[in-house]
From TrEMBL:
<protein>
    <recommendedName>
        <fullName>Cytochrome c oxidase assembly protein COX19</fullName>
    </recommendedName>
</protein>
<dbReference type="InterPro" id="IPR009069">
    <property type="entry name" value="Cys_alpha_HP_mot_SF"/>
</dbReference>
<keyword id="KW-0963">Cytoplasm</keyword>
<feature type="domain" description="CHCH">
    <location>
        <begin position="30"/>
        <end position="64"/>
    </location>
</feature>
<dbReference type="Pfam" id="PF06747">
    <property type="entry name" value="CHCH"/>
</dbReference>
<dbReference type="GO" id="GO:0005758">
    <property type="term" value="C:mitochondrial intermembrane space"/>
</dbReference>
<dbReference type="InterPro" id="IPR051383">
    <property type="entry name" value="COX19"/>
</dbReference>
<dbReference type="InterPro" id="IPR010625">
    <property type="entry name" value="CHCH"/>
</dbReference>
<comment type="similarity">
    <text>Belongs to the COX19 family.</text>
</comment>
<dbReference type="GO" id="GO:0033617">
    <property type="term" value="P:mitochondrial respiratory chain complex IV assembly"/>
</dbReference>
<keyword id="KW-0496">Mitochondrion</keyword>
<feature type="region of interest" description="Disordered">
    <location>
        <begin position="1"/>
        <end position="20"/>
    </location>
</feature>
<feature type="compositionally biased region" description="Polar residues">
    <location>
        <begin position="1"/>
        <end position="12"/>
    </location>
</feature>
<keyword id="KW-1015">Disulfide bond</keyword>
Length: 90
């Protein structure tokens, strides 16, 4: 006799992770930003350091439309790009 079949004794309440999971952009609200970022990556042989401005704009779009949590740009690694200036050279 096994007691492993007691499903009613504990209630599991799943919760989403704090980081690393966010809603998909089903309505395409940030599609133009994503496409611009992907084109930049392709044009620069996937050197993501050359596409930081596009990446920042894409994440800003997602935050503005509540598709991800609002985070300070400094925390996301874009502190040097605030004000539109980039250290990456094209």
């Amino acid at each position: 006799m096994s007691t492993a079949m007691n499903f009613g004794t504990k209630s599991f309440q799943p919760r989403p992770p704090e980081k690393g999971s966010f809603p998909l952009d089903h309505l395409g609200e940030c599609k133009s930003f994503k496409d611009k970022f992907m084109k930049c990556l392709y044009d620069n042989h996937f050197e993501n350091a050359l596409c930081r401005n596009e990446s920042k704009e894409y994440l800003e779009c997602r935050m503005e439309r509540k598709l991800m949590l609002q985070e300070p740009l400094e925390k996301l690694g874009f502190g040097d790009l605030i004000g539109g200036k980039s250290e990456a050279k094209k």
